[in-house]
Structures are given as structure tokens and as C-alpha cells.
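Human: I'm a chemist; would you kindly supply sequence and C-alpha cells for a protein?

Assistant:
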Amino acid sequence: MPSNGPIKFFIIAGEPSGDLHGAKLIQAIKSINNNTSFMGHGGDLMQNEGMKIIEHTNNLSIMGFKEVIMHLPRMLKIMKKTIKIIESVKPDKIILIDYPGFNLRLAKNINHLNVPIFYFILPQAWAWKSKRVKLMKKTLSQSFSIFPFEKKWYQSKGLSVKYYGHPFVENEHLNENTKQFFKRQNLNPKKPILTLLPGSRQQEIDRHWHIFLKTVELVKKLQPNVQIILAKSNNVHIQNIPKYYCIESNSKKAILVASVALVASGTATLECGIERVPIVVCYKLSFFSWIIAKYIIRIKYISIVNLIAEKKIVPEYIQSEMKPIKMRDKLIELLDPMSKSRLLMLKNLEQMKIKLGAPGVYKNVAESIIKEGS
């Protein structure tokens, strides 16, 4: 590593959630050592932090077995292009963020370059594809887990893993307070709010949105005063949005003011859980992907909130169970501020949050990455 030139980082995040983590990690790295440069695959947030984007997350985010097969030729081209650029640029450190289907193959293909490879937001090998651990032990310089149970699992398989807590416990400073948010969105603070988080991928929106619409319609019939906020990622297109919906691009803000949330399974469930927002979790895969998932995934729950709690503390409506009437009934129940199910869920969410550690995750990970091999 050059002693006078900037430390060259090559970072790969293939999804919107990875873009968020990547941007925060870049911020933390720059706060420790500003003599750095960044390039790789990511999104707008990482670009705003000064990273040169090679492939945008909009071109990389794919969900489902069938969908991966359909896009395989294009992804193989991106893989070859990525390897060539890394060989040419000769980065000092490589950081992989989530996105295991691509990132682990890349790690295998560039291992001969002897560049330190760090993995942040590890593959969920405890759920499926446990054989990935063998490759990870061969190729990774250091791994960083974000779940306490995950660290234990990986270490039991012989992989060295560090755990500093979960990034969502960080103290995030928003550019407006709750009063300003209500005013901007023309919301009544005295009326309940149902926040919708249908997904951050277009494939998720395409499968979920018509069910979300019908569910809200049924909720409004029983509780007409409920206000609706749609947390919409900028990288997705949603049609037929009713005029009375408030659209919010910042999911954090939409979650903070929610009385209850209807959430597609993913990182958003944990964001809600940490803010102690009662949730109804749902998800729908393509039929082909669902059939495969049933045979290879070995976890009891799909919601990370339930996995961390190690018991079912939030309801899950998956595939054929994702029915508007069922979800309406649970949402109405949770909208009652004094209902037993709401109060119990709030208590369980608080206990779940304690397991996730204290703020300072990005800074600790950044320090570990900078020190390694320096």
C-alpha cells in the first residue's frame, strides 16, 4: 500500500439497502482517514459520498431464482467487467456489502490478486447455502456480522467474524422534525397513520402493490380516519396510487410517524422494529421461486425481527397467506392503542432492540478495515 497516495477502496453494493450501508461506511472511513478514494458498484447515496459508480444498483438488484436465471448473461458480463477493472485499478482494499450471489463469485475470481477483501452484511448462509462458508474462509480477510445469532453460527463453522452491533441502531439526524413532517405532508397528528412499505425492488412492487391497495381499502372501510403514507424508493415505479396517499421517499421518516406499518419482508421490518412500530409482515415470490425456496431455505421465520427475537413476535403473511382480509384484521387490531396484541408487540420489539447493541457500528467497522494490513 502506498505511503503517500490515497488508499484506494473498491466497494460493491448491489441493492438499495447496500447503497445506504455503503454510504454510511464511506462517511466513517473518510472521518478517520480523508486520504482515500472510492470506486465500485453502488447507488446514489454512495455516489453522493464521492464514490465513482461503475454499475448502479438499479442495474444490479434482482430477487428470485427465476429472475436471476433470466438476467444471468447480463450479470456474467458485469462480472467480467468488474474483474478487469479491479485488475487494472489495483485497489488497496475491497469491501463487499451483502449481495452474496455476485460478491462471493467475485471474491473467488479475484482471490489470486492478494488484495484484502472485507465483507460487511454477511450472506445469510444460516438460512440456505451453508456451503458458502468454505469459500468465505478461503477468500475473506475479515467478516463483519450485524446479528448476534449470526456471529455465533459463523464462528461455529470456523469463520472469524467481528460483531459491533446492527447499523440501524445508529443515531440518525433527520433534516426535519415530526411537526415539520406533518405540516409538509398535510397530516393530522391526532389521527392514526398506516405506513406502507411494499418493497425496494420493482419485482416486489409488481407482486405486492395490488394486494396492498386492496388491504388499505378494507382498512379504510372499518377505520376511515386512518391516514396513509407510502414509503416509495426512487428506483421503483408504482402505478394507481390513490390521491389521498402521502408519498414519502425517506422511509425512516415514514416509519417514525407510523401508528402501524404494513411491510414487505426485508430490512424495513427491522427499521420498524427498532423504532417500536407495530408491523404486519408479508411477502410474495414468483411461483417458481417459492417452490425452490420451500425446499432449500431452512429457517422458521422470514422476518428478521422474529429471527433476532428467536420467536414469533410479529405476524407473517407469506405467499398464499398474503390475503387482504387477513392483513386488514391484524392491522385494525394493532391500530387500537390499548389492544393486548399491540402492547405485547411493543414490549417484544423493545426486548429485540436490546440485542442489537449500541451506536458506533460504522465507525468500528471502518477502523477495523483501515487497520487491517496497514
Q: What stands out?
A: DSSP finds 16 helices and 13 strands in the chain.
